[in-house]
Amino acid sequence: GAGVSQSPRYKVAKRGQDVALRCDPISGHVSLFWYQQALGQGPEFLTYFQNEAQLDKSGLPSDRFFAERPEGSVSTLKIQRTQQEDSAVYLCASSLASGTSTYEQYFGPGTRLTVT
Amino acid sequence: DAKTTQPPSMDCAEGRAANLPCNHSTISGNEYVYWYRQIHSQGPQYIIHGLKNNETNEMASLIITEDRKSSTLILPHATLRDTAVYYCIVVSQGNLIFGKGTKLSVKP
């Protein structure tokens, strides 16, 4: 079946521009996660949704980062006034349920953001 | 959540078993051990998880020591497509913390 999809796959932004990254989770998956992965590092948690509710945004690095999932399916990660340190791969993941099943996550291919 | 320690890299010959170790000496009783892998330029892929008992699925086996302070992920017949970074994660609540993992290189 269809997995998690993300768009665009690649994004180049000039410093100061706003960007929006989209995630389409697996249909029916309750939980949705965003991660940031810098070159050579493991993914780092940004934020977590259960349906449309954003239950944890403790990993968002600054108030320039904003995520939403208004109808409990598609999610958008928005970065305002991009900085060079925002250059990374942004990964989206979804999981079927809550509890320990939350940790069996299905990841999309990521969006590689380059800020010039 | 408990911290994990993994070797930064390992090599394995194609067709042989790959045994990837993970140390989690501070694991507590309700914490699970999860394994993910990340093939180059792809998102991470869930492999397997366990609490106390050994587990096996179509991808791999997970062996957890009796004291639960360490575990080993076993890929029984490694192929070139198994070349990836393998992450061992201990979690019961909170979020997945990936660390740097072990880069497994399967060589022909």
Order of helices and strands of chain A: EEEEEEEEEEE
Helix content of chain A: under 10%
Mean pLDDT across the residues of chain B is: 94
* Distance N to C terminus of chain B: 38 Å
For the largest interface, the chains and their residue counts are: A-B, 21 and 21 residues
The proportion of residues in beta strands of chain A is over 45%
Number of strands of chain B: 9
Order of strands across the main sheet of chain B: 1-9-8-3-4
Q: Main β-sheet of chain A: number of strands, strand sense, barrel status?
A: 7 strands, mixed
Q: What is the general shape of chain A? A: globular
pLDDT < 50 stretches of chain B? none
User: What is the alpha-carbon Rg of chain A in Å?
Assistant: 13 Å
Q: Identify the overall geometry of chain B.
A: globular
> What is the tally of helical segments of chain B?
0
Number of strands of chain A: 11
Describe the protein in words.
Chain A is an all-beta fold and 116 residues long. Helix content of chain A is 0%, strand content 47%. The model of chain A has no long low-confidence stretch (mean pLDDT 94). By secondary structure, chain B is mainly β. Chain B is built from no helices and nine strands. Chain B has a five-stranded mixed beta sheet, with no helix packed on it. In chain B, strands 2-7-6-5 form a four-stranded antiparallel beta sheet, with no helix packed on it. Chains A and B meet through strand 5 and strand 10 of A and strand 4 and strand 8 of B.
